[in-house]
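hi!! sorry for the late reply, been swamped w classes. u asked for the two structures so here they r. pasted raw, havent cleaned anything up. first the sequence of the first protein and right below it the tokens
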Amino acid sequence: MVSQVDAAYADVALAELYDADPSPDDASERDALIDVSLTGWRENVDGLLDDIVKLTALLGGTLSGEHGDGRLRTPLLAQMWPDETLELFALVKSAFDPRGLFNPGVKVPLAGQRPLGDIKYDPGLAPLPPAARAALDLVTAERAYARPRLSLLGE
């Protein structure tokens, strides 16, 4: 499978590919560093994701490995799971979060949600509000990754 994934990445030619977690059993984690400054990067990566998801589903693999599905992979779940399973995801989420307040768009996609929706490093998106940018810069500068982000907005 790794050679097929590498070939899909090579077709796009907008990323540096590296093996994030080499494994002797060919179950490796491939990551790409996408150059978002290139024209058409989003469309190319959309096509790449489609190819990788189809290949992963065909081979009985998983998109998330040891990670959760998050906002990036949630819109792709319909290609990986049967409708009955997706309905169960939605039922469990609604049982614990009936008003949909916690992590909207995670595990249960929002209407029209795309895998590459609002990527935080996309130069084509509007900049973050100044208070949010300052809070994230503080997290980076102080390596304060465990601090709740909302608590930083007043600083």
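now the second protein. again sequence first, tokens right under
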Amino acid sequence: MAKTYLRQGRLDKARKVWEEIVPGLENLGPSDQIEVDKWIGFVDLAQNRPAAAKSRFLRATDTLAETKGKYHVASSWIGLARAHAQLGEIEAARTAIERAKSPVSEVGIRTLDAEFLAGLMEVAERGSDYKLAYQSARKRFDLERAELTDGARHRVEDMSVRFDLKLKDADNQLLTAREADARIQRIVLSLGLMLSALIVAGASFLLAKQARQRRLFETLALKDELTGAPNRRSVQEHLRRAYAERNDLGLSLFVGILDIDHFKQVNDVDGHDAGDAVLKAFYQACRAELRPEDVIGRWGGEEFVVVTRLHDEVTLQALYARLSNRVKQMHVAELKSGRVITFSMGACRMCGAETTGIDAVLARADAELYAAKEAGRARCHVARQAYATDPRASWNSN
């Protein structure tokens, strides 16, 4: 009953039932009390009380490993991993979910597999491993869809067999008395309604599941899998919205293309894992320096695009200086060569009717980025405007 309340989201009722069970377990030993305490821990997680849940799951992992089966041990580790993740203790969460993997695979129960994938998805998402979060969500969706399909089919087949048996029994009764006819009709109608309700409920549940997963996939489709930054598509949509917005604050919209200097050497000397780590750290460093309303996303490879509203080219150069200092101070453990990361930037101001459009602004910013690279890298070249005649006047930092 308590587990049913938990699945239905009736958390207060689930907690009340479990807490009422505990006094009756005093004569059965501490392991039974710990098992109930573990289930209360899942209620704590659902009610956003990860610290309380963590304490319960720690006791469960210590006690149930000696007294209970692998199902309860795996469930306890999964709960502990989720509690660590909600508290921001990502390394501890990864360790706990890893401990759950072996007993989960040995038990081989679909519901436990789905519970493990849900825990893995939460740990990965809170640890900014969006690729693993996406993969876990996809596996859980496929697993639950298969479980729903198989379960619904078995229930329908069972109901069909029962229906046939009842129908035959009704035929026999029809031969002996007329009043049995009314009872037969009620039985047939009842079973038909039960069968229809089962099919409708199963289909509704599956559609709701698919809708939730679709929303998750749409969110992930706008993020770069490696860095978690907005991807090219997301940045392009933001550019179109920003280009059409009216600005009453006297600020200009600037678009800058940022390119990490000598990134190929990072991959060649330190390895591709180091290159991936640099890309992640670069995005996080820039994001920390920018304002909440500014947008930075991964454009492709080692290139990023920043969209910001500023007064003029001078304030953009000041922004580049702050970003450059922040990037130079990055600590990337995978960089065994001790290389200091720098980047070059080419930028252009979007000035409404005086521009030739978003593509022209991006093309001019890219040209300024090339000029910054040619001038020695680790600097910012800013085009004044993206005119149709494409004049070469620019504000440059050395």
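hope this helps!! also noticed smth abt the second:
DSSP finds 14 helices and six strands in the chain.
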